[in-house]
Design brief:
heterodimer, A: 93 residues, mainly beta, Folate-binding fold, 4-stranded antiparallel sheet, two-stranded antiparallel sheet, 1 helix, 6 strands, B: 892 residues, alpha+beta, Ubiquitin-like (UB roll), FAD/NAD(P)-binding domain, 7 domains, 7-stranded mixed sheet, 6-stranded mixed sheet
Chain lengths: 93, 892
């Protein structure tokens, strides 16, 4: 079971959280103008790295807030977590 | 130790309290313990603990145990066990034992209370760290316990420190990332053969540790030679321990076969205990060290450069009679008599826990063993598992002598799987070169012991055959659990009714009183139907449906997810979330809405009511509430933080009782005398506040059946009162309670979809024929995807009705639909759609169904075929609307 650092509550057990998606994938502003290809990139394409990955989680059974956090997909080590709109800390790699 | 009586395979034996069942049986001369699983070979005990592959038992007494090595079963008064042939079985009686769980955050977890583990614990405890020591044995000392020696007092003292928790009889069974480990503490099996009423039988510990230190020691391994599985051939350390420590005196003479100095140490122990050791057979050309000197001094013959080639069994007993000793290439062999052949094939460090988190053990040729590499951030190892064998030994890298094809046939590698050297050779001949492939080809290491004694041997044999070092052919990957454990231990107290949280509406007790069978909807319990006496589902549903269409029915709709949405930007927010417009909704009015993902696919629906200018109450599907709330918050947190909107889950705050049917107006008028119930004053999709049965309520004219209907919403704790009042006052109108099944039929007759049943996340609103719900005037989540080529293309699967030609046939839900022209063709034929909802309808007097059909909107009137269970059901494609197509009934 993962131990996930919520930036508001501190480290808590995985059962309190839900996974969202890759962090920092912005909803395109000019949706009506961009090509199907660019739109599809936003809808369907996500990084799937072996190693450090910035992710969006929600502390559903806690403060219920969304946040971002670095996680190593190899060994589930967690890096820094950061609130939405806070600048993304550098990858721990 | 006190004498106790136990039963094994129906026979009574005496044993000493606390010793293992294997010890007690050996003492009673049970050498031929069982027969092997696949080849019926007679087998006996070879090991000392969890590495034992042969001596598996089923325990009848107490809580029972489906399959466990006799080497770890403590003998207690009244123990009843029987031998197993490689495979156990689950008891069919209920286990009344208690099982507990404990969670502990701790600085350091030390696995193993041998000397290395105790030292590590002491070091950490001295600097003030909280330490937990888990150990599988009933006393500390590890290897010293086997030797019957005392642990030095200064080390033992660590166990009494206030910041140290020592857990004997506790196996760390799983190790996971971030210092998380799970241990199984057996608390009663060594005390009683009965079910303990006071004490939990097993306590499952969940540790989260800053540091985990593995001091797990090592298991001895066997050598691979013909008939190496005969009873009486044992691992030398186990044999010497049974004889020297436990006083098992059934062996008169012994031969030790060894690759290291351990064999010499065990030879001396056997010799000192009175066993005549005929020879120590060492595959090395020479050996030195104190144990070697001691063997020489005892006058025991040492044969260098030789090893066991084969063994012979006693005719009657089937146990070993002699061992055939010769050169490593199999030549010049001769027999030496012995009723114990003690084999020291080298040590295999117990690296399992580390491999669970991806650590790759490294090959240490000087130790002929795989050991754990240097420490990582939070995981380290000490003692033998770390490669500290503590001696001046130089073991040979040797796994067995040259064997002929015939010898290889009975030269066992994995005893529990009956896999032999021949199997390994065949795997290699078939082209396998990696341990992972050979393992799957031969099943070696896949039995319950997970190859504790056979893993390294297999790698060594493959390596030898291919001329490679053992670590060049892959690496061992083990998986938790380390030993078999009862499911009950993992479940703890979360069994039966408390296995999963159950959500009940405030009206639940009344439904139970009415003997309504319950349907699980997520964690909710919802009445499925309300049987009249012994009535079955089918009849009850037809009756309930007819009552709603002709009179009045009542349903508990409290489980619908409800989210209270407030704030000055609430209307704008909902416009972005829903496909249709909500900012135009009047205060006091309700609207049905669809939510799509960014991919344009419908993912939840529900009715949202505007309670005030900046205040909405959203309802979601019963199962989707939590997901929708997460979704709303995600957009508010990550994309639209400028919107002033607050969302609160209020699902459980409100009880909703829906009264449905043409006579519902009469009933609501009676229940709420102050309410103007005329259609002019209280129209469809409107809300009114009034007292209902004396309770302040919000009444909504919402319908999920097409009938005139009123939903009575009250504070949750008045729910039961409202239900009772409805039942009492509704008697004169023939009030009929109905459940989820009738609800499903009624909505399907009107073609209303249930998201998650009729949809699977690949349907746009247009696919469902609901273009009207998609606003052209505003943007919303998913809109951009509607113009994607695949979403916009013609001929997508679209929602249609299926009318079986035979109106008595109910098409199975989930069935595939094929073109009628393909009905007579042999399978496989391409499908063109599938059925999502299918029922028998009281109102229609026949069966009907809905589902998705390729280009379905353009195929109304066409015949299709539904093959199922060897038969073909013919059906006509229709629009997905079956009853009251003109919507004349919703206003009564």
């Amino acid at each position: 079971m993962l131990n996930i650092p919520c930036p508001w509550c501190g480290p808590r057990d995985e059962t309190e959280f839900h996974y969202g998606q890759e962090a920092g994938v912005a909803y395109p502003e000019n949706r009506d103008e961009i090509s199907d290809e660019l739109w599809a990139k936003f809808v369907f394409y996500r990084a799937n790295p072996k190693g450090w990955h910035a992710e969006r989680w929600v502390h559903s059974a806690g403060c219920r807030r969304w946040f971002n956090v670095w996680r190593n997909t190899i060994n589930h080590e967690f890096g820094e977590s950061y609130k939405p709109f806070e600048p993304q800390p550098k990858s721990p790699a | 130790m006190s004498k106790v009586t136990f039963k094994f395979d129906g026979k009574k034996y005496k044993g000493k309290a606390g010793e293992s069942l294997a010890t007690a049986l050996l003492r009673n001369e049970v050498l031929h313990f069982t027969d092997s699983a696949y080849r019926d070979r007679p087998r006996g005990v070879i090991g000392l603990g969890h590495e034992e592959p042969n001596a598996l038992v089923y325990v009848d007494s107490g809580a029972g145990e489906p399959m466990i090595p006799a080497t770890v079963v403590p003998v207690v008064e009244g123990l009843v066990a029987r031998s197993l042939s490689g495979a156990g079985y689950l008891p069919d009686t209920r286990d009344h034992s208690r099982y507990d769980k404990k969670y502990k955050h701790v600085d350091v977890v030390v696995v193993g209370a041998g000397i290395a583990g105790l030292k590590a614990a002491l070091e950490n405890a001295k600097v003030g760290k909280d330490v937990v020591i888990c150990d599988e044995q009933d006393r500390p000392g590890g290897h010293l316990v086997h030797l019957g020696q005392e642990v030095p007092a200064e080390l033992l003292a660590v166990l009494n420190l206030p910041n140290v928790t020592y857990l004997p009889r506790t196996i760390v069974n799983g190790l996971y990332d971030q210092g998380y480990s799970v241990a199984i503490e057996r608390r009663t099996d060594h005390e009683t053969s009965k079910v303990s009423k006071q004490k939990a039988r097993i306590r499952t510990w969940h540790f989260r540790a800053q540091q985990t230190i593995l001091a797990t020691g090592a298991y001895q391994r066997h050598l691979v030679f013909a008939n190496n599985d005969l009873p009486g051939i044992m691992l030398s350390h186990s044999a010497a321990t049974y004889v020297a420590r436990d006083g098992v005196d059934v062996f008169k003479s012994a031969v030790v076969i060894t690759v290291d100095n351990q064999g010499y140490r065990d030879a001396i122990r056997l010799h000192n205990a009175g066993v005549q050791v005929n020879a120590v057979v060492d595959c090395r050309q020479s050996a030195s060290g104190p144990a070697v000197d001691a063997v020489r001094a005892a006058g025991i013959e040492i044969l260098f450069g030789k090893t066991a080639i084969d063994a012979c069994a006693k005719k009657k007993k089937g146990t070993v009679k002699c061992v055939n000793v010769g050169n490593l290439d199999g030549t010049e062999s001769a027999c030496i008599d012995a009723d114990l052949v003690a084999v020291s094939g080298g040590w295999t460090p117990t690296v399992h826990l580390a491999t669970y988190i991806g650590v790759k053990p490294k090959w240490a040729p000087e130790l002929a063993a795989f050991v754990l590499p240097a420490a990582t951030k939070w995981l380290s190892s000490v003692g033998m598992v770390a490669g500290d064998f503590g001696g001046d030994d130089s073991p040979a890298i040797f796994f067995g002598p040259a064997q002929t094809e015939e010898q290889a046939l009975s030269a066992y590698v994995d005893f529990q799987r009956d896999a032999t050297l021949r199997d390994v050779r065949r795997a290699i001949k078939a082209g396998m070169q990696s341990i992972e492939h050979v393992k799957r080809y031969t099943a070696i290491g896949t039995a319950h012991d997970q190859g504790k004694t056979s893993g390294t041997i297999t790698m060594g044999l493959i390596g030898a055959a291919l001329g490679k070092a053992p670590d060049e052919i892959g690496s061992l990957t083990f998986r938790s659990p380390f030993v078999g454990i009862p499911f009950a231990a993992l479940a703890g107290r979360e069994r039966g009714q408390v296995a999963d949280p159950v959500r009940r509406t405030p009206i639940h007790a009344l439904h139970e009183g009415a003997k309504a069978p319950m349907e699980d909807v997520g964690q909710w319990k919802r009445p499925w139907y309300f049987p009249n006496g012994k009535e079955k589902l089918h009849d009850a549903v037809l009756r309930e449906c007819a009552a709603v269409r002709e009179g009045v029915g009542v349903m508990d709709a409290s489980t619908l997810g409800k989210i209270d949405i407030q704030g000055p930007d609430a209307a704008e927010f909902l416009d972005r979330i829903y496909t249709n417009m909500f900012s135009s909704l009047k205060v006091g009015a309700s609207r049905y809405g669809f939510m799509c993902g960014v991919d344009g696919m419908v993912f939840d629906d529900g009715v949202t009511t505007r309670l005030g200018e900046n205040h909405f109450l959203m309802t979601t599907t019963t199962g989707g509430a939590a997901k929708v709330l997460d979704w709303l918050e995600e957009w508010l947190y990550t994309e639209w933080p400028d919107l002033k909107v607050y969302c609160t889950s209020v699902t459980e705050h409100i009880s909703t009782v829906a009264i449905v049917g043409p006579k519902s107006r009469n009933l609501i008028a009676k229940l709420s005398p102050t309410l103007d119930v005329s259609n002019e004053a209280f129209g469809f999709m409107e809300n009114k506040y009034a007292d209902v049965a004396g309770i302040p309520a919000r009444i909504a004219r919402i319908s999920f059946s097409g009938e005139l209907a009123y939903e009575i919403n009250v504070e949750a704790w008045y729910g039961a009162h409202i239900w009772e009042s409805v039942m009492r006052e509704g008697k004169e109108f023939g009030i009929t309670p109905y459940g989820t099944e009738t609800m499903h039929v009624l909505r399907a007759e009107k073609g209303y979809v249930i998201l998650g049943q009729d949809t699977d996340g690949t349907q746009t609103p247009m696919d469902l024929g609901m273009d009207w719900i998609v606003s052209k005037k505003k943007d919303f989540i998913g809109k951009r995807s509607f113009t994607r080529s695949d979403t916009a293309r013609a001929g997508r699967h679209q929602l249609v009705g299926f009318m079986p030609v035979d109106g008595q046939v109910v098409i199975p839900e989930g069935a595939y639909v094929i073109n009628a022209a393909d009905a007579a063709k042999p399978a496989p034929v391409a499908h063109t759609g599938y059925v999502t909802s299918s029922y028998m309808s009281a109102a229609l007097g026949r069966s009907f169904a809905m589902g998705m059909l390729a280009n379905g909107a353009a195929r109304h009137g066409e015949q299709v075929a539904i093959p199922f269970g060897g038969k073909v059901i013919m059906a006509q494609v229709t629009e997905p609307l079956f009853f009251d197509k003109e919507n004349t009934r919703r206003d009564g």
